[in-house]
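Example record

The entry below shows one chain as it appears in the dataset: sequence first, then structure tokens.
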Amino acid sequence: MGHLTFITFKFTILVCILGGPIQDDQELKPCPNIKPFTKVNIDQLLGKWFLAIMVIESQNEEFIEDSVCIHGELLRYNKTMLRQVWNIDNPLLIGDHSAVIELPTKEEEVGIWSILSPLGGDIKATVIDADPDKHMILAFCGQKGFDSLHMWTVVVTRQNGITAPETLRLSAILVKHGYSPLASKIVSWKDCPIYTFIP
């Protein structure tokens, strides 16, 4: 597995779905030791998702792209492969996708995915928690030498937008799995317009 990248929000807000070489000066923490959630199968998780919450461990990055909305679909490609198609949109440009990224994905075992980054290398994603009709929480880790480092964790939801009570409930799940608001940067999205998905 090659080195992975960590793309910042300032570059394209794709930090939740892209990877590339992890830099020596990035203060990333070890990948959390979390057992994958195995109560649902991956076919139950297919379909449309909206990015609602993202947890970043690196405190050295500047996250300012609050005007960008990310939504996508998890689709089955064949018996062994899936693909994620993510649309990155600016609400000021309704009707036009700022970017569309497609990520080949393979389920290595129940709750653990291997994602091929467009920039090279693999990213490991672990399903922490999921309700097929409501939400999914994924932790993304990349490799630096022999170390597995936590890059980001995302909460995606089936509905566009997330209410305050739902934010608290999902945040509580993150805290239960060891995420600390004092040690992590947490970014949330809401009030994103409804967009047409690109097939």
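Notes for this example: Strands lie at 47-56, 69-76, 81-89, 99-109, 112-116, 122-131, 135-144, 147-157, 185-188. The radius of gyration is 16 Å.
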